[in-house]
Amino acid sequence: MSDTSVIPGSLAVRNLFEDLLGREVSVNPGNPLGAADLPTAVIAIYTDTSQQLYAVLGMELSLAANAGAALGLLPAGAAEDSIEEKKLFPNLAENVFELCNVLSSVFSNVEGAPRVKLYQVIYPGMDLPNDARAHLLALGKRLDLTVEVARYGKGALSLSIA
After folding, report:
1. DSSP readout, 75-139?
2. Is the CB of residue 156 less than 8 Å from the CB of residue 42?
3. Which class in CATH covers the domain with range 10-161?
4. Residue 88: other Cβ atoms inside 10 A
5. How far apart are CA 117 and CA 110, in angstroms?
6. Parallel/antiparallel/unpaired status of strands 42-47 and 53-59
7. Which of 56, 58, 127, 153 fits 66 for a cystine, CB–CB 3.0-4.6 Å?
8. pTM exceeds 0.85 for this model
9. What is the pLDDT of residue 108?
10. Nearest-5° angle of CA 158, CA 116, CA 161?
11. CA-based nearest residue to 153, from 20, 91, 64
12. What tens digit of pLDDT does each residue of 47-103 get?
């Protein structure tokens, strides 16, 4: 693991969401995802070039559905249906995968930072590896936000650097 690991700022996360979704996004400090949130959350695992765990990102289902619908230019009702059924529909999951992939760029905007890439996305109902679970729930280098996508909705985002 690199000594240059830095937690991305909330502004960098907001700007990335806004640029990707093409709409206003607001971020505020939020509560960390808890163990009870993980079965319905979307979890992204990032590794460095030596395939070592670098970061784990978790999004509440509501944020994943809203961001996925916004990215696909789908009506807000598509996200609401997904949230109500407590699962991420395949078309939204595909968009969220792309969002998670693009989010890897927030780790590389620091001089000397290692190249980080998306390793895996875990959707609601899938098994979460124990190491990823432990990192996401641990104290330490982390960023916890509430992210609101204009005209869609909001949800929690937690990011933990390994």
Report:
1. -HHHHHHHHHTTS--HHHHHHHHHHHHHHGGGGS-STTPPP-EEEEEE-TTSPPPHHHHHHHHSS
2. no
3. alpha beta
4. 25
5. 15
6. antiparallel
7. 153
8. yes
9. 76
10. 35
11. 64
12. 998 999 999 999 999 999 999 999 999 999 999 999 999 999 999 999 999 999 999
CB 88 within 8 A of CB 126: no
Look at residues 56, 55, 95, 89 and name the one whose alpha carbon lies nearest to residue 73: 95
SS3 assignment, position 51: coil
Span 4-21, average pLDDT: 89
| Pick from 7, 43, 1, 4: nearest CA to 161 | 7
Banded pLDDT at 1 (limits 50, 70, 90): very low
- From 122, 145, 152, select the one nearest 21 (Cα to Cα): 152
- For residue 153, the cross-strand partners are 149
- 57 and 158 Cβ atoms separated by less than 8 Å: yes
Q: Given the structure tokens 């190249």, which residue do they identify?
A: 115
> Domain map of the chain by residue range?
10-161
